Amino acid sequence: MIDLYVEVRSFAHELDELIRAFFPSKKVNILDDIEDPPMGDLKIEVVYRNKQDTTYISSKLIAREQVIDKANEDIDLSCIKSNKLLTMRYIKNGSKRCVYNMMSRFAGIELDWGILTGIRPTKIVNEMLDANMNRRLIIETLSNEYLLSPSKVQLLMETTAQQRSILSKNHNKIISLYINIPFCTTKCLYCSFPSDTIERCHDKLDKYIESLIYELKSVMDIILKKDYIIQTVYIGGGTPTSLYVDQLERLFMELDSILPHYIEEYTVEGGRPDSLDLEKLHLLRKYGVTRISINPQTMNADTLKRIGRSHTPDDIINCFESARSLGFDSINMDVIIGLPGETLEHVDKTMTNIYNLSPDNLTVHTLAIKKGSLLKEHIDKYEFADNNTAEEMLDKCKLWSKNMGMIPYYLYRQKYMLGNLENIGYSKPGKECIYNIQMMEERQTIWAFGAGGISKVFYEEENRLERVPNVKSHVEYMERIDEMIERKMKLIEK
Ligand SMILES: C[S@@+](CC[C@H](N)C(=O)[O-])C[C@H]1O[C@@H](n2cnc3c(N)ncnc32)[C@H](O)[C@@H]1O
Ligand code: SF4
Q: What is the dihedral of CA 339, 341, 344, 350, to 10 degrees?
């Protein structure tokens, strides 16, 4: 356990995350008072002193009552003192640098993501681009203020460059929709999404679709009367295509009558080939779906079995080829690096197969060992790549995607990822998924329907988001459907 005392309590959460990026297996105990008795073997103290326009940050690393390291920063606030938000950001980043430097010396390692702990690092760069900062200054800020490694700076610059033309067209009358189908054919070992298996829920599926259509009709009626333009629709989950074909058809038919006819991008996460046969692929084409996912995760049969996916690598190839033959020209594939038992050779095999298929998007996830997953529960049974190998795996995918003519276009980070790495979405030029960019950058209103959907309303003038969550459990969602609609209506009317 590591004890942390920080005089500005609101910084504690981010400092806690930063400390755990160095020591993922340690717990951080946040002390309310500097004199509180410590519980661990290491203690970090961060205190502040203000004089005129400067804040002096002093931090100490203490082991067995001995100060073993110190780090200080003087933050000159004279140019920004009228801006309270910016002032707090400067002091918070200074505090994080102090803690970073002490932890880095103590652990003998540097973190590629520097002091950044959030899940959306591209947002920071987009904000700087909005403020018309030049490229050189942005690179300097990422390196010196956020302590990012040159490779992460380059990744952020490259990724955000792909997003600008899409984000620049945003305005407050253009919105997106997310529709959640929280069912799957089987539960994967690593998954913590609140999805249930079709088998267990087969008697509830019709009612779920009915509730979903009711929610969509009630809310969209008002939204469309207010002249909003729907840029993208994303049907995700779970695995939407795990619904039976007649249920899927009912949903698409209703959507066809509810939604306007021009939608720039219409994605369905087919996800697993064991849920997506030719009949369903025809259905998606018939109802104008423009983008689908067929996700291998890995192209190694043994790993697929180990992670509880009831399909083979050949199923993926066949499903992909069927989709192409029906004219789908925007297909994404998800892979995960660092799956239990996998080595660099496994990643090469996966990527060789994907290279041969040549999808339009490739999303490379780093395994996250999430609370609530079977993997976390039985962690001792499995072997994983070490941090350096996980990084090499990610680099390999980067090279393969480059060979496929792809460029990174969105990225995000999650808790508990191997090697403190990231997830990267690659795309062939012009095939970027608009929804993924909008969802990650949080600059567009996205109305979310179905159990677990979280709507986010974006107020451009105030650069602010308001969240409206639906309940997570599909049973509760059906029971409380009127309340879900009411929650949205309140915000739409406002
Ligand atoms: C919401 S899931 C749905 C996709 C679809 N149901 C499927 O499994 O093919 C989206 C993606 O997140 C990734 N994912 C899920 N859990 C993960 C974990 N614990 N670590 C890394 N990636 C994960 C997988 O690549 C998955 O395809
Ligand atoms: S990874 Fe996808 S298919 Fe597997 S359980 Fe999670 S949502 Fe379902």
A: -60
